[in-house]
Structure prediction request, 484 residues.
Amino acid sequence: MYTRNEFFINGEWARPAGNDILNVISPTTEQVIGHVPVATAADMDAAVSAARGALETGVWPKLSVLERGAYILEIANSLLSQLEYACHLQVDEMGAPYSWISAVTGYWLTLIQHDIDVAASIPVKEVLEGYMGKVVVYREPVGVVAGIIPWNAPIVNALTKVVPSLLTGCPIVLKPAPESPLSAYLMADAAIAVGLPPGVFNLVPGGREIGEYLVGHPGVDRVSFTGSTAAGAKVAALCGQQIKNATLELGGKSAAIVMEDADLDRIMPSLISNSLQNSGQVCVNTTRILVPRSRSAELRDRLVDEISQLKVGDPHDPITTVGPLVAERQRERVEGYIKSGLEQGAKIILGGGRPKDLPTGWYVEPTIFAEVDNSMRIAQEEIFGPVVCLFDYDDVEQAVSIANDTQYGLGGAVYTSDLDRGIEVAAQMKTGSCIINEGPLGGGGGPFGGCKKSGLGRESGREGFESYLELKSVALPAGFDPKE
Ligand code: NAD
Prediction:
């Protein structure tokens, strides 16, 4: 049993003001595997106040990016030194296949030096030529950040908030998802181990209501939110009322365009993994696969053949690629979409049910729908499960049009043997990011985020980090040259 009885506030463990606890249930065994306390408004007030103290009177904002980066690197190394434990803990709390969660967690932790280099390349003070004279532009920490994250990759999601926030000098209050709060505590353990100054990182678990309280807290200057589009709209409304700086990373319904010249032997691993990784529970997954009509039968056969060979089962088993869904309600949601696809006339060519040999755990078989019309719910709404939809297209213009005919605009992929043509097609997709043939979805180190209902703003890369900085322009008299 994993048990945590306190929050991490102002550099130390803090007793909760209330008595409620949050049980964490393994999606694999359906048993309670641990618990954490649930934050009340008083706990959140204490966390925000600690972060404000770190901002207004602490050393953190005064340190250089490289000095802050040294702490963050130590935290990352501390997590890397217990990577096995951290990954199995995440598997226990939210059911991700170990093969996937260990790859992404390890990968992100080794990217920290790159992030430090990017942050260090952003000038904190810059002299520009203005209309009349020179202008000194300062980039200052935006203030206290509220980081609110979902459950689907707990440590990576936390890193996407904590790393840019801390590198840019902004103390953070992190609210993990109620389904997966346990692994976030490893970050607090690491913060203590490396002597992170008090108030810089605060960890306060809870659900939607306390998340909303944190968003609206007057002591919070910026909200960095990752989650569903429905919750993002509420967060945006609250931030709008308060004119509060916010980034929203929301849902998706991304398309993979397989071009006529695609080499299936080369692309299948990437196509399948990018469509089904984490049992379909990744925002950027390409869950709509668009195929030229001339190659439709060939690709269907390959997908059915290769996806039916994926190991579905115990997510701790390193050869498992499809594990259980995070919660019983998530399985119900996915099954509801499968039912609606059938009712609207799509055809299941693989899966569609629960694996017969797995009576315990919230599993759904990897499922492929063919004969999908883009107006169907399964084509338009985010399912967040191991379900892909196949579409036939006649020419590339039609493929792009189907890909863009969605309320979302998060990721995308183009599979082709002609990389230059692939870039041209990717440029026509109305999404925040896209890959050609291979590599992880999600911006590849460039800015990452969504268009349309997939979000507002960007995280990662220079542009993502800059969103944690406030700009100030000091206009100087004509002819005056400031000292360096
Ligand atoms: P969710 O929106 O239900 O919850 C996400 C987080 O927000 C949780 O911590 C939750 O407690 C909190 N929350 C919910 N309502 C809130 C509110 N009104 N105010 C403040 N906080 C609130 O999403 P989920 O089910 O945990 O995660 C799945 C969703 O996240 C999917 O839609 C997926 O596409 C999206 N997601 C997006 C990205 C991205 O980068 N774009 C990455 C991962 C997941």
Remarks:
- The first helix runs from residue 41 to 56.
